Each structure stands twice: as structure tokens, then as C-alpha cells.
Automatic annotation (TrEMBL):
Gene Ontology BP annotations: histidyl-tRNA aminoacylation; mitochondrial translation
This protein's GO CC annotations: cytosol; mitochondrion
Lineage, top ranks: Eukaryota, Viridiplantae, Streptophyta, Embryophyta, Tracheophyta
Gene3D superfamilies: Anticodon-binding domain (3.40.50.800), Bira Bifunctional Protein, Domain 2 (3.30.930.10)
Protein name per UniProt: Histidine--tRNA ligase, cytoplasmic
């Protein structure tokens, strides 16, 4: 007998027809249904687990790339005198709210535990400002490498959990000193990570506000208009124009005037000269004049430090976050891998004061390391290079089941800070293949013949060259000599 269900409307009729062939009180039917239930439930248990959208697992090769990148980043931060800092992964909700403008909707709230409303940190800047205020610190140059969380729609290069690498300078300094150093640090980071061509788009918040004032935008709409302008790197101006007119209530003439300004971008000193020309409307606006004077000092310093060629003065850069007060910047990768912005930051002179009432000026940059990792992983694929997941320098291969001997030899190497692994197996080729597959450059073999002679056999794995016979009591000295020669 075959029952067909031609459409959803026939399912009920089909079920009735099917049930007519079974006696619900039949013991065999009951047993059959229990077995079906067991199979379904066991399949549920065996179903492959998943990770949440917008998160990633990192395997051994990816962790090797990440480790290398973090090492470079930390060394650049320390070169500039920054000290490390760590803060809790979640903050009181009141600490985070009101600091991110329209992006506040992306904050992850946690369930109420113990009477406190908490949220996962959205970035590392607000927790840093809270730390300064809470500890009454007036000056600090710090770095922090840690995970942050966004309740965002995941997409390529956009995650809900990701690392940020922050460098910030807080305190009173001569005009534009810390701003210059932070931009300089950003160029050094991206150069040393060696990811390819990039540009740093730069603007000034006071210049933006001045531009909007010149265009006739009321001050209470500055921030919401800026959040629309900030989308210009992803959407055409006509789409932004529609949003500004229809959703944010600006006049068409006002938006057209904004459009004529935000199209200005190019070499910093050239655009600066254009904006300071006689007759420029920016010279009639007090905030814009202050901004242009700041930018001239900054650009002259970047010119002397040979970093100016990495910077583009871009009046469309708006940075949507509410706390920026001065220079703002965003680094964009220009290679084939489309990842969008890879770093951003700016000056935030009022943020610490929101917590303590005491103003501590600050400026910083945050590197979106996940997108940098995407670029680095793609480059490794293009170079067709084997990514070493370990830093092991030598494999101690004992040809036989003699763990105590392996332990004795490898302990000497570990005591000398040589990165070593060991194996006990009668088959030499099995151990050799292990070294080759894992990219271990040297293999140290000890078999019956070597034991009798009181030596070990040291071979270079890559070209399978003939081994060096080394006296047992000189293995550390001889191996270090060859490792030093290889590295140089």
C-alpha cells in the first residue's frame, strides 16, 4: 500500500488514511514507535555541534599567524613606551550606554546577576576611560589586546566576537604631540605586519562640525548627519542623500552643499592649502579654523617622520561614535582581499570626564586584528607556503621503545631553551616524516649503533642531507651552533 501526499492540504487526510492500517492498542506498534523515537533522539545527540554566527574557531596554523602578528603589534607598542592594561570583559551597563551614539543598539546585554545590570564591552576605549577616572589617573600611555563584542549582523570580515589592539595616550601634552605619535604608531604597525598597500583616511571632528554649520545643519543634528556621512565608503552619495532628506529631514540644497564638501580628498598638505585659501568658507568658522591649525601641525610632523604619504585628507570621514572631539582617522586596506576598515581612532577629550567630571584629554587608535588576520591568511595561501604551527627546532628520535633515554636527552635540550620534541619508534622514516610534516628543521637520531659509539646523529630534515656525528656530551653546544648558523 502506498499513500501519497500531493500537497500540504492532503497531509491530514493522508494521516487519517495511514492510521487506519494500524491498531493504536497493538503492542508491536507501540514497540515500533519507541524504536523510531530512540533513533531520532540518538541522531540528535550525534548531530555535529555548531558555533554561534559571527564567531570563529582558530586551528593550529591560524594560531601560528595570530601569534606572529600579536608579537609584532606588542613590540611596536612597547617601542613607543606603552604599558599593558587589562579590563573586565563585561562592564556595568551604565558605563557603556550613551557613549556610542546609534551604535549603542549593538551592545550585548547580560542577564541580571546579583542585582547588577552588565553588558559585554563594545570596545576597549570606554573601559580605558572608566579605568582612568576610577583610579584618578591624569596621564597614561597604554596598550591593550583583548576581545570585544558586537550584537551585529555577521558578514565577511565582520564578527560578533573579535580582538582589538588598542594604543592610547591620555594626559596633557603640547598641541598635537600624542595625535602625531598615534598616527605614526598606526603606520609602523601596518608596515611591520607587511600586509600590503593601505591608506589612512584622516579628518577632524571640529572641521566636520564647521562644514555642517556652513551648510546650514542645526547643531542638534550634527551627530545623526555624521552617522549617515560615515557610510559613504560603502554606499553612493545618492543613497546617503535620500537618507538625509527623507529620514533626517534636511533640505535638498543643504544636502547638495554637503555633497560638494565631502567629495574633497587627497594629499593632506594640498587639501589643507585648498581649505585655507583666501575666500574659503572654513576660514569664517571658528571651529574650522582651530581644526585647520591643528591639522597643519600634524601634517608637518608626519611629513618629517616620512609617514605623510600613507595619509589621505578625506572630508567624508565622519566616524559615527559620539565621543570623538578632534582628529579622527581610519586605515583601509587597498589590496585584493576586501575587508573594509582595518583600524580606526581619534581624539576623545571628554570621555574620561563623563565618569569623573575631571577632564583628561586622550587620543588613541584601535587595530581590527581579525581583518588583518584575514589578509595575512590569504597572503600565506597565495605564497603557497607551509604554515608552521609550532616553533620546534629539533625532533629527538629514539629508535626503540626507550622513553627514559628520550627523556634524558630532550631534558638537556629543554634546559638549554632549545625548542624540542621527542618520539620513541623503531621506524626511522615514521619519525622523519613527522619532522617533515610539522616543518621541524632538525632531527636528532639515537639508535643501537649511536648508543654503542656514544654519539647522536644530527640531520637537516629539509634536504635529507647526511647526518653529523656528535659526541653525546656535546649535543647542546653543537646543536646551538648549527641553529645560530641557520638563523643568521
Amino acid at each position: 500500500m502506498r499513500v501519497e501526499f500531493g500537497s500540504l492540504s492532503n497531509i491530514a487526510d493522508g494521516a487519517i488514511e495511514l492510521s487506519s492500517f494500524f491498531d493504536p492498542k497493538n503492542a508491536e506498534l507501540d514497540s515500533f514507535l519507541k524504536k523510531v523515537k530512540e533513533i531520532v533522539e540518538s541522531n540528535e545527540v550525534r548531530r555535529l555541534p555548531k558555533i554561534p554566527k559571527g564567531t570563529r574557531d582558530f586551528g593550529k596554523e591560524q594560531m601560528a599567524i595570530r601569534g606572529r602578528a600579536f608579537s609584532i603589534i606588542e613590540s611596536v607598542f612597547k617601542k613607543h613606551g606603552a604599558v599593558g592594561l587589562d579590563t573586565p570583559v563585561f562592564e556595568l551597563r551604565e558605563t557603556l550606554m550613551g557613549k556610542y551614539g546609534e551604535d549603542s543598539k549593538l551592545i550585548y546585554d547580560l542577564a541580571d546577576q546579583g542585582g547588577e545590570l552588565c553588558s559585554l564591552r563594545y570596545d576597549l576605549t570606554v573601559p580605558f576611560a572608566r579605568y582612568l577616572a576610577m583610579n584618578n589617573i591624569n596621564a597614561l600611555k597604554r596598550y591593550q589586546i583583548a576581545k570585544v563584542y558586537r550584537r551585529d549582523n555577521p558578514s565577511k570580515g565582520r564578527y560578533r566576537e573579535f580582538y582589538q589592539c588598542d594604543f592610547d595616550v591620555a594626559g596633557q601634552y603640547e598641541k598635537m604631540e600624542p595625535d602625531f605619535e598615534v598616527v605614526q604608531v598606526l603606520t609602523e604597525l601596518l608596515d611591520e605586519l607587511n600586509i600590503g598597500e593601505y591608506e589612512i583616511k584622516l579628518n577632524h571632528r571640529k572641521l566636520l562640525d564647521g562644514m555642517l554649520e556652513i551648510c546650514g545643519v542645526s547643531s542638534e543634528k550634527f551627530r545623526t548627519v555624521c552617522s549617515s556621512i560615515d557610510k559613504l565608503d560603502k554606499q553612493p552619495f545618492e543613497q546617503i542623500k535620500k537618507e538625509l532628506v527623507e529620514e533626517k529631514g534636511l533640505a535638498v540644497e543643504t544636502v547638495d552643499k554637503i555633497g560638494s564638501f565631502v567629495k574633497k580628498r587627497g594629499p593632506p598638505l594640498e587639501i589643507l592649502s585648498d581649505l585655507k585659501n583666501v575666500g574659503s568658507q572654513f576660514l569664517e568658522n571658528e571651529g574650522s579654523v582651530l581644526a585647520l591649525n591643528d591639522l597643519e601641525i600634524l601634517f608637518r610632523a608626519l611629513e618629517k617622520s616620512k609617514a605623510i604619504n600613507k595619509v589621505v585628507f578625506d572630508l567624508s570621514l565622519a566616524r559615527g561614535l559620539d565621543y570623538y572631539t578632534g582628529v579622527i582617522y581610519e586605515a583601509v586596506f587597498k589590496g585584493a582581499t576586501q575587508v573594509g576598515s582595518i583600524a580606526a581612532g581619534g581624539r576623545y577629550d571628554n570621555l574620561v570626564g563623563m565618569f569623573s567630571g575631571k577632564q583628561v584629554p586622550a587620543v588613541g587608535v584601535s587595530l581590527g586584528i581579525e581583518r588583518v588576520f584575514t589578509i595575512m591568511e590569504q597572503l600565506e595561501k597565495e605564497r603557497n607556503q607551509v604554515i608552521r604551527a609550532t616553533e620546534t627546532q629539533v625532533l629527538v628520535a629514539v629508535l626503540g621503545n626507550d622513553l627514559p633515554l628520550a627523556a634524558e636527552v630532550v631534558r638537556e635540550l629543554w634546559a638549554a631553551n632549545i625548542k624540542a620534541e621527542f618520539g620513541t619508534n623503531k621506524k626511522f622514516m615514521k619519525q622523519y616524516d613527522r619532522a617533515k610534516q610539522n616543518g621541524i628543521p632538525w632531527i636528532m637520531t639515537i639508535g643501537e649503533n649511536e648508543l654503542k659509539e656514544g654519539i647522536v646523529l644530527l640531520q637537516k630534515v629539509e634536504n635529507k642531507e647526511e647526518g653529523f656525528k656528535i659526541p653525546r656530551d656535546r649535543i647542546v653546544e653543537e646543536l646551538q651552533k648549527r641553529l645560530n648558523a641557520s638563523s643568521s
